[in-house]
Amino acid sequence: FASACAVLLAGLALLPALLQTLCPYFLQDCIYMLRVARFGVRLEKYKRRTPLYSILDCFLDSVRRHPLKPFIHFEGKTYSYSDVDRESNKVANALRAVVGLKEGDTVAMFLGNEPCFAWTWLGLAKLGCAAALLNFNIRSKSLLHCFSCCGARVLVAAEELRGAVEEILPALKEKGIRVYLLSDECSTDGIKSISQAIKQASDEPLSPSFRANLHLKSTALYIYTSGTTGLPKAALITQERMWAASFIQGVSGVTADDVFYINLPLYHSAGFLIGLTGCMERGNSVILRRKFSASQFWDDCRKYNVTVMQYIGETMRYLCNTPKKDNDKDHKVRIAIGNGVRADVWNEFLKRFGNIYVRELYAATEGNIGFINYTSKVGVVGRVNILHRNLFPYALIKFDIEKEEPVRNADGLCVQAAQGETGLLVGKITKKSPFVGYAGNEQQTEKKRLRDVFVKGDLYFNSGDLLKVDHENFVYFQDRVGDTFRWKGENVATTEVSDILIMVDCIEEANVYGVTVKGHEGRIGMAAITLTEGKEFDCVDTCKVLSNLLPVYARPYFIRIQNSLEMTGTFKLKKVKLVAEGFDPALIQDPLYFLDLAQKKYIPLTQDIYNSVLAGEIKL
User: Fold this and answer.
1) What CATH number is associated with residue 570?
2) Containing domain of residue 133, as a range?
3) How many domains does the chain have?
4) Per-residue pLDDT reduced to its tens digit, 420-456
5) In 3D, which of 470, 472, 569, 582 has the Cα closest to residue 524?
6) Which residues, listed in sequence order, are joined to residue 79 by a DSSP beta bridge?
7) What is the pLDDT of residues 231-272, one digit of tens each?
8) Do residues 558 and 605 make contact, with C-beta atoms less than 8 angstroms apart?
9) For residue 472, which of 384, 378, 567, 574 has the smallest C-alpha distance?
10) d(CA 69, CA 620)
């Protein structure tokens, strides 16, 4: 018996090592699934509560628990939970008295990253109003379009954005939209200042009866997509969806003791839903900046003892491009939450700034399926596990890049992609994972619905994104459908080509896309690039690097050198205009180069070469 016990104990002692060898991510899988299950149970409880228990109510609970705890640090000032609560009461009481707002109204917020964004939204929430979060970079036609999407009848704008409002004021008046400026006075006819009314308003709490009819399916927000392929689309965010997004911090391991750094725009889902409302759900403190600054980032982190940072797009690369310092690892940041970082930058970031848990996300503001990398694996956006698949049914299906549509079999049904094969991500639309769509745009909403996927009559959300799952069940983002083109019968992923281009010593940034050439099928590769400061375009080295690392069909035949690459507010590269402009030197003022395979270098693209390409005299 004793010997049997000894063997058993020895086996148990070896079990952790055996698990680590056979299932190296077992513990991380378990922790993640437990966290998701816990938040799932919470959401189910909220569904049964009457009246609605919202993010606002969660914030008010935090005010009661720790009224003096710092909520927002901003430009040298600190606002406690009770400070923000009182300011939001003033906003709500002023808007109710002056504007006559009531439950169910929609108000457009045209504000920058500053504390009043938080208490203006909270004030609207206390009145039961939905908020449309307008991108403060948009102007003219796009700005007007945003009003027609969400049906807002009131606009609250920052004083510094008055010029943008005045540009469209006649159209706003025609639509009957009332405009209020957060300023002490305004002489512009048709715009009323409201700051004095807010200052003089009562800071007494508002009765919950003002929002008594809200429920989890009620609209809480309208968040606009970046509009890289046209006018912005208003994604409809329900109270339930707000809760789900706010849980991302908790799932990532963020606690109430953390200090969260927000430098992303609050009009976007990353900054507002994951960032600000996530902090309300956690009850932690926020360091808020007007905009991202690579040079001041780590000084801010050290000054305020930041423990959680956000990133998106190229922000990590910007941080890695700052001059190296001896104190690069002297900070308390332990978690980074975001999306869009390349694997090489990810590795460089960790090497330079220390062992930070990077929680790379895959999600869309309007989508019903998302992933999060809860492991230490670099370069992945998530991991397949049983719980996630059951809660949010999804699939990767084969996609025809040339036709830009899913591959269907003889029965008219989609074909599931094999393990390791790139496929289009689709999420099954169910009660637990709905797709609400875009406000005021049923056509765009319908374009995102994919029917008859695996059985006749089923319904899925079309993400428009290509992903793959490897043999270890890790999920990799590959490309957006529109960012992949076909040339010489082969699919070319623009992100892959961009990653190779920036390996060239003289190239700082690269935006790759496909352009049409008369007489040729598909699209040939072209890249808009910016040069590293102090360097000229190296025609030979660029060709050499691309030849060594890319097949001939994937190499950009045309290169356009620009002073800067145009981006959206969330650091996504704009391509539509570049694609439309093509490679005609008569129309483009920027320097253009053509890949001469015979000379093994890029040569200036002259009008004669352009004409020869169109005439088919130069073989592509």
Assistant:
1) 3.30.300.30
2) 50-283
3) 2
4) 999 999 999 998 899 999 998 898 899 999 999 999 9
5) 582
6) 72
7) 678 999 999 999 999 999 999 999 999 999 999 999 999 999
8) yes
9) 384
10) 65
